[in-house]
Amino acid sequence: MATQLVPLPEVERLSASVVRILAGNPGKFTLQGTNTYLIGRGPQRILIDTGEGKPSWAANLKAVLTEENATVHQALLTHWHHDHVNGLPDLLKLCPQAQIFKHQPGSDQTDIQEGQVFSVEGATLTAFHTPGHTVDHMVFMLEEEGAMFTGDNVLGHGTAVFESLKTYLSSLHRMRDRVSSGRGYPGHGAVLENTGARITEYIQHRQQREDEVLRVLRYGKLDVAEGESSPERKLEWTPIELVKRIYRDVPESLHLPASHGVVQVLMKLEDEGRTIHDSDSGKWRLSEKPAL
């Protein structure tokens, strides 16, 4: 994956009101590193996310604030994951008066409400609760640009992980309705030039996975001819058995991580009354009777 990633500078001005500061933590799941964003044009700025506490991030933030003759007035946290919040102590050393905001806040933090507006010179941010990646996940619209800070719901590369597929899809639809074709500033990876189009790709990808799970449950395989009744079909499947059919061209070392996404699909289908889970065997089956 790393060879496919576009290199990103540690600090980069992305627009007149947005500077991206990488958290200094590149990796398999963080891509080039967690993105943090300094927003605004005047002496008081808003910071979105704080990285995971790497010294390079604090040094870069300090340098940018000095160069811009600015301070962090408010910090908005997209969600609770450590690579987005662990830099808080470093931020408060640099800007002890900074107010910290987070949905479902921790100690010394203030809650973020749906539709809440945060503003500094040159920037107006509107908050939207978009659970899925995590239950507390928030995104922020930069109204002056028609751009969205997408957190970890939509990334600059690859697809995102989520805790609840049904909830996540609902949030993706809400995000797409709000941002349209505007820019996206993701929690990881490069800037999105058409966020609505990327969200549509995410929704279609999830629908494709759901269709594949249903096809294997129904026919026992992915490649099904029109009107075919497959002799390979069996009544019940474990998630890993489904993975071996759906991800047959993927290395086996990746099958276990892939099974987590398959389980999310099965749980969504169960919630819709389309699958049944046997908790004793751990197997899943279609709720409707198979066609003969």
From TrEMBL:
| Cofactor(s) the protein needs | Zn(2+)
**Sorted alphabetically, which SUPFAM superfamilies does this protein's record hold?**
Metallo-hydrolase/oxidoreductase (SSF56281)
Q: Which InterPro entries match?
A: LACTB2-like_MBL-fold, LACTB2_WH, Metallo-B-lactamas, RibonucZ/Hydroxyglut_hydro, Sec-metab_biosynth-thioest, WH-like_DNA-bd_sf
**UniProt superkingdom:** Eukaryota
* Record-annotated Metallo-beta-lactamase domain positions: 33-188
Q: Which GO terms describe its molecular function?
A: hydrolase activity; metal ion binding
Protein's UniProt keywords contain Metal-binding:
yes
The UniProt keywords, alphabetically, are: Hydrolase, Metal-binding, Zinc
Q: Which GO terms describe its biological process?
A: secondary metabolite biosynthetic process
Family that this chain belongs to? Belongs to the metallo-beta-lactamase superfamily. Glyoxalase II family.
Q: What is this protein called?
A: Metallo-beta-lactamase domain-containing protein
Q: What organism does the UniProt record list as the source?
A: Penicillium bovifimosum
